[in-house]
Structure formats: structure tokens, C-alpha cells
Amino acid sequence: MDYLKAAGKAVFNDQFVTKADVLLHSAETANHSIGLIGVPLSKSSISHSGASFSPTVIRRMLQSFTTYCSSSEIDLVNSLITDFGDVVMHATDITESQSRIKSTIEKILIDHQPNHMIILGGDHSISFPSIAAFSKQSKVGVIQFDAHHDLRNLDDGGPTNGTPFRSLIEGNYIEGKNLVQIGIRDFMNSKAYSDYAKEKGVKVFTVQDVQTKSIELIVKEAIDYLSREVDMIYLSVDVDVLDQAFAPGCPAIGPGGLDSATLLKAIEIVSSCSLVKAIDIVEIDPTIDFRDMTSKMAAYIILTFLKNVGKN
Ligand code: CA
Known about the structure:
312 residues; alpha/beta; 9-stranded parallel beta sheet; two-stranded antiparallel sheet; 9 helices; 11 strands; binds calcium ion
């Protein structure tokens, strides 16, 4: 009898359990309707960040979950994903790295025409080139889960994880009125950027709005509005929208955020909309995480996203 197993594989296997990492297939051997790409850029972070390590860890965390969704009795075993690998970043040049991200995603959209894309950051700066790539083909609306507006000026530090949505608006890749921000927190932004959001028509829902109106109503309102305005919806998930208790691996942790169940409920509702074609998950630094809690949240978000987009 052979007692050897491949290195890195689970020690215990239950013949009736399928782990979610089996959904990932290399682009060299597969072309499924759902694509995934890693974007390991975090030199653009205002504060210290090892978010460039997270695409690899998030992929690995899929091993922590099964493919079966108990509440809906759906098995995701056929929701196969083409893994395109990671974009190779320039060692020092942020603008060059952003250019590589944009051109790589544009090429995937043309060559493979995936129905849905999952983009793993990296810090939030990657949403600028990623969304810009989609805007070449479609009129894009964005639902952004975030504690921050990310509408900082570019004069003080160039393109950083504080500027992606300003760059998208100023570059005419998206219209301000087609950006919906959910989870904005007190004492984490400035009046200048709140005013800029109002001036550009950005729809802002604070964490207090989520508490008083409910996440269901807010997300449905966002979908109903964007569905009248755009061709596709891009979902951008900065894990700092979560309370620090739920995202210890996020560089910009803070109190007063959403709990993980609320964010997952939002992802579930949003991903059931047929216009939602892409999701990015950003701002996870595995080097400061605790027991990979935050990367596991990202893996769970991927599975929640898959649960509904598979029906579209
Ligand atoms: Ca952000």
C-alpha cells in the first residue's frame, strides 16, 4: 500500500467532501466562464503593507472551505474558475505596474471573454487600472465597500491606495454618479473629500446608514439605481469596511465597521444582479494577519460571489 501524498495536500480526506480549491484551474489547461487574476501590488500603499502576498494566501484559503452551500443546497463543484496567475509588477515604478495591470486585464477580456472576473489585490490602488480595463468595453458602475472615499488628491503622493476612485473619475473611466460607496466611517476621511464626493455626485452610504436602513435596502437601492445607468457593475471590496475585530490582517484597521455577516449578506445580494461582472478584494496583508482570518474572509467572499453569479 502507498502511504505517500503530494506535499502540501490535506492530511485527511473525506471521500464525501470536496474542498473549494479544486475550483481553480490553470489558464494553460482551461477556459471557464469565470476568471481569476492575482494583482500583487502594495508598494503603492500610503502605510506599510504586505498586501502583495495576499493573492497566493487567498487562493490557499479556499482549501479551508467546502464547495457545498448548506443554506441554498447549491454545490459549487461545477463553478470552475480559470486562474490566469498573477500580474508581474515592476520592482519600483507604480505607474508602470498599473499599466501592466490594465493591459493584462484588457487582454484577458478580449482573448477569453469571461462572464465574470475575480481580481485579488494587492492594495486598493489596483482598482484604478482594473476598472479602467473594464471601462474600455462597457459603461461601468461601481459598488465600493470601504471605510474610506479613496478620493485623495494625486499631488501629495501620486497614485496610491488612497486615490483609485479619483483617478477613475478624473480620467473619465467612470462617472462620479455611477460610484456607490458603502460603509464610509467617521474620523477616517476629511471634509475636502466628502465635498469632492458630493460635487461629483458619488452616492455615499455611511456605516450609520447601514445600521439604520439595513444592508439589504441599501444594496438593492444601489443595484436598482446603477442598473438604469450602466452596462456592468464592478464590485470593489476593501476589507477595511469591516470592523477591526473581523479583519486583523487589514493594514488600516479601525473600530465601528461592519461585521463579516453583514458584508457577506451584501455580497450575496449584489452578486445576484446579472449586471455584476467583476469583483476585486483588496487590502489584506497576510504578514500581519491572525490565523489567516482576513484571507479566509476573502475566500468566503469568493464562494459567496460564485454562489449567485453561476446562475447568471
Ligand atoms: Ca480603500
